[in-house]
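Our consortium's second objective concerns turning raw sequence data into structural hypotheses that experimental partners can test. To show how far this objective has progressed, the report includes one record in full. It was chosen at random from the queue rather than selected for favorable results. The single chain below, 361 residues long, was entered without modification.
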Amino acid sequence: MSFLRRLFGRSEPEHHHSDEPVPGWDAINAALEPIYGDTEPLHWGTVVRWRLGGPDPLDGTSAYRADGPPLHWHFVSYGLSELYAKESEDPAASGWGIELTFRLRREPGDDQPPGWALNLLQHLARYVFESGNVLRAGDHLDLNGPIVPTERTEIRALAFALDPQLGRIETPHGSLEFVQVVGVTMDEYTAMMAWDTLRLLELIQEQDALLVTDLERTSYLADPAIAQVVQEGTATEGSSMARINVDRLDWRGDDDRLSITLGAMAIERLHRMVEGRLPFGEQLWIQGPEMAVVAQPAEPFSWHDAGEGVVHIDLPVAMGRAIAESVPPTAGTYDIEPRLRIVVERTVITDQDGNSVESVG
């Protein structure tokens, strides 16, 4: 918990002066009051704000003892929205337009939440601040390992949903959504890529209305009824995953050939997209740090430079199928046909703390 300080009592920044208005912070507290009344949460605040050079983007995180069911900790972040003054140019949204929440199962005697949960929210907030990619309901994320590296758990990925109790609110600085972090197993994560994140979460909510993360649970897909719905939805509807963000993407083209370079870690998601989007008449979007590829199902194959690092491709369904069948997550050069080449480079996988743990490809 780098530079986090434990506070008790009212959920407010320890370092703000009594005459400093905090309308965004007050709006979050007002949204929590109908649920928790005058219950005092545990609260952790940062010593040095992000804007002043501190390492943690969230100004604070509160944790409430929620009765559920099941019993759990309900974490709520402060800092992805505009807590103090309106500074962003978008009048409709407060800051990034979100705050993060997380529900983690607790035992009756637990009086302190685990520190890793606080760090997880800081890591996710840092991703938003540094990449500019806002986490929204319906997104998902591979953690490249257990959600707690020191625990034996099947929870190895995250999905994001609208918090079932907090939802959306209006603040003096614009609207914000409380986006809940939900721990999922790898087969659930794969199903979300192939079908629909929110639809699968709705099925899970039939058994766990508040989407509480439980490190000891097994996959919900072990339930034959849920597995059948997912299988039928995937077959008849395809994938809702219209866009993926990747850390390595480049493209170069001339009159003879378009060449697209990706990291090996992105190839499985590419397979899911071309199989789950193109045959259903849907376009797909691959976004890299500086370049992007937008493909739509159309005959014949063609491409054009749309400007600002974006290439638009008319991609026949058969060529998309060929990509899924002939491009493995292994470093190499793969010619789909004379005019389209996919180059795969090795990807270094890092854990939640940015440490290299594996190389793929």
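The partners drew two points from this record. The chain has two domains: 4-235, 243-350. Residues 142 and 157 are 4 Å apart (CA to CA). Both points have been shared with the crystallography group to help prioritize constructs.
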